[in-house]
Recover the amino acids of this structure.
């Protein structure tokens, strides 16, 4: 583990030293797991994650550096942003999986873009149902059913992804391509779920 | 991000929106998707001889995806299959002045043309029940 340049204590996060409070310059390549002081893994305990964020955010909060010299003020702002961004990635299981697949040398989203025709036909069908529902004056019961179905499919996709990444596969493992395809499917599910959400919001506003 | 006038025009007045009869042997259907954003695009062609006489599309996606597919149907109508296969996404990018973040929309349209033609060719090959080699 890296040691603090100022006091020699072992560092939990590259953003600052918890022992002496020294604000550090974070290397560009620092991973979200490093930033939050966690081992890379697909399963992340939400409370632990939140706890790490609060603890580290306190060390770099710009308010505490408001009177400091400009270099430190800027660094505090930058490090806070890095921490928050890392938290956003790790708090979302799909984004966490996406990060791990990329970090393990797996394929990018656009190199595994081919989806089974049957799946794409389904995506088209969901969207057609939503388009029809949008045109109707009354709520369409199919939308509620679709929302339940898609949410369940999203959950089981994420379960399969978690199983494939636990324990983490070797760098460049072919299993990563399967995970990437599953993540791409989640993207289509998310888009449709987002449409359902905006349809519901539009309806509740009209009332 | 601002859309170009051409994108806005195609978005407001999309050409050739709709469906053709998927079951017809002269109709080819291509359904493609963009994992970057979850957009999905269906493009259908009706072929007589080696010429595309009609084209329809249905796209669920952003303005650029709709404009790209609308433009694609406009371009392939009246062209031969080989001419349609020659259309490149870069031509769509240029015509619509798509920004770099929207290039995948034009890729989607090119993929959709290819998928529709492949589906049509597969259908033509079917009755002979021979492998792909027997291209009509």
């Amino acid at each position: 583990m890296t040691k603090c340049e100022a006091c020699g204590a072992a560092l939990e996060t590259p953003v600052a030293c918890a022992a002496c409070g020294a604000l550090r310059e974070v290397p560009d390549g620092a991973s979200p797991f490093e930033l939050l002081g966690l081992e890379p893994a697909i399963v992340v305990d939400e409370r632990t994650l939140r706890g790490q964020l609060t603890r580290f955010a306190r060390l770099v909060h710009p308010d505490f550096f408001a009177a400091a010299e400009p270099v430190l003020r800027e660094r505090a702002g930058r490090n806070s942003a890095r921490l928050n961004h890392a938290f956003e990635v790790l708090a979302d299981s799909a984004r966490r999986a996406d990060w791990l697949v990329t970090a393990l040398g797996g394929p990018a989203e656009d190199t595994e873009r081919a989806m089974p025709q049957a799946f794409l036909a389904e995506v088209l069908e969901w969207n057609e149902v939503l388009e029809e529902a949008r045109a109707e004056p009354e709520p369409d019961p199919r939308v509620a059913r679709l929302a339940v179905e898609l949410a369940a499919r999203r959950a089981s996709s994420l379960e399969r992804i978690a199983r494939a990444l636990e324990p983490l596969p070797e760098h460049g493992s072919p299993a990563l391509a399967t995970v990437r395809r599953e993540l791409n499917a989640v993207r289509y599910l998310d888009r449709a779920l987002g449409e359902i959400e905006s349809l519901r919001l539009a309806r509740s506003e009209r009332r | 991000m601002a859309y170009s006038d051409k994108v806005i025009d195609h978005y407001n007045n999309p050409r050739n929106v709709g469906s053709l009869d998927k079951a017809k042997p002269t109709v080819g259907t291509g359904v493609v998707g963009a994992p970057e954003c979850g957009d999905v695009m269906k493009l259908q062609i009706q072929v007589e001889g080696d010429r595309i006489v009609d084209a329809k599309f249905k796209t669920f996606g952003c303005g650029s995806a709709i404009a790209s597919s609308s433009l694609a149907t406009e371009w392939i109508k009246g062209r031969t299959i080989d001419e349609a296969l020659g259309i490149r996404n870069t031509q769509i990018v240029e015509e619509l002045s798509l920004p770099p973040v929207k290039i995948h929309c034009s890729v989607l349209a090119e993929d959709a043309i290819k998928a529709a033609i492949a589906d049509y060719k597969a259908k033509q090959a079917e009755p002979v029940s021979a492998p792909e080699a027997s291209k009509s």
